[in-house]
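ok new one. same drill as before - structure tokens go in, u give me an amino acid for every spot. 365 of them this time. try not to just spam alanines like last time pls lmao
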């Protein structure tokens, strides 16, 4: 039987992987044009992010290597930690969204990237955003040792985000465990990353370029779910899943039949979340108010809430919609007094509920 703890030691040592990733992102890559695959290329960001990117310095955008857009719009006043913050692009966008009362903390191990991120932080916050002072700070360190690297105590941040970085870590369980500990009750790990439909061979894991291109370190999707649940994230939720193409003949031959996906996950921390989706007859209604979600809110691949339309939800979703930052945007009726069995992953309006059996979660993945 394969154990998730083995993933940290397969292939090269942790220090070897870190050294190669640091060299790749600090010296080998100058801009996104130097990438050898499209793994670190993402689909266009949502409109509210595009609007804010206009004011972000060009060099920061040029040295951005993410695979998604893990920045929700409803983050006003939050304290946010960005794992593997790189040139700081996502931090700069998030700084504009959280407002002057929020705080953005970047963590990266690459000097060259940190230098770029720090260079414009104060001017961006005070001159562009008109805040009284900078709300961004950047720390050098490893995402496997969050508390040691940032000096953040447990239960101290509202959100942890990351963009195509956790796959670069040689010890992913340590990253997820550190993120869980750092989050407050009701907090969220909201991130994009590269995943695979299988466990990769030792040959692939030891391929220097494939590590740097975010492919050799990609977790098997089911292994990620196991790790997330083990550290405390009861129900990892897929927000978006897109198939990836390598577009490099030489590297495609090394990878063989392995298929890769760019997935946006959201994982909430709350003691009342269960490991399975259960039916308590609860109903949620989106009241509007989230930027970019005027008429409907896409909670994950299974739940799309149309404004004003009641929707049957699982006990876990009801907990998230009443006991996290999302509570101010939703009205939830019902409690957990009566249990009606397993909840279908295909939510329906209350009047149209059927007794169809539950299917496995995960959307397109």
């Amino acid at each position: 039987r394969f154990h998730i703890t083995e993933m940290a030691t397969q292939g090269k040592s942790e220090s070897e992987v870190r050294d190669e990733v640091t060299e790749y992102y600090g010296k080998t890559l100058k801009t996104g044009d130097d990438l050898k695959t499209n793994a670190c290329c993402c689909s266009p960001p949502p409109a509210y992010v595009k609007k804010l990117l206009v004011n972000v310095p060009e060099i920061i955008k040029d040295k951005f290597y993410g695979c998604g857009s893990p920045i929700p719009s409803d983050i006003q006043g939050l304290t946010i930690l960005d794992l593997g913050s790189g040139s700081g692009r996502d931090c700069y966008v998030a700084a504009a969204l959280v407002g002057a009362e929020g705080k953005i903390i970047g963590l990266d191990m690459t000097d060259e990237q940190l230098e770029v991120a720090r260079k414009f932080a104060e001017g961006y916050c005070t001159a562009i955003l008109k805040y009284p002072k900078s709300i961004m700070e950047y720390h050098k360190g490893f995402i496997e040792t969050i508390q040691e690297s940032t000096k953040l105590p447990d239960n101290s941040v509202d959100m942890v985000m990351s963009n195509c970085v956790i796959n670069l870590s040689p010890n992913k369980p340590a990253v997820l465990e550190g993120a869980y500990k750092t989050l407050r009750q009701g907090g969220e790990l909201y991130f994009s990353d590269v995943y695979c439909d299988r466990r990769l061979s030792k040959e692939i894991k030891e391929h220097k370029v494939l590590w740097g291109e975010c492919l050799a370190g990609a977790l098997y999707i089911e292994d990620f779910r196991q790790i997330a649940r083990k550290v405390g994230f009861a129900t990892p939720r897929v927000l978006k899943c897109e198939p990836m193409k390598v577009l490099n003949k030489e590297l495609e031959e090394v990878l063989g039949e392995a298929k890769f996906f760019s997935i946006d996950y959201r994982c909430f921390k709350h003691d009342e979340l269960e490991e399975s989706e259960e039916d308590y007859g609860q109903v949620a209604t989106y009241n509007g108010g989230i930027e970019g979600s005027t008429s409907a809110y896409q909670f994950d691949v299974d739940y799309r809430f149309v404004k004003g339309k009641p929707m049957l939800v699982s006990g876990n979703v009801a907990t998230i919609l009443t006991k996290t930052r999302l509570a101010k945007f939703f009205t939830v009726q019902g409690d957990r007094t009566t249990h009606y069995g397993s909840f279908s992953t295909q939510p329906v309006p209350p009047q149209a509920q059927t007794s169809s059996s539950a299917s496995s979660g995960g959307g397109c993945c």
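Confidence is low (pLDDT under 50) at residues 1-9, 352-363. and btw Residues 14-28 form the longest helix (15 residues).
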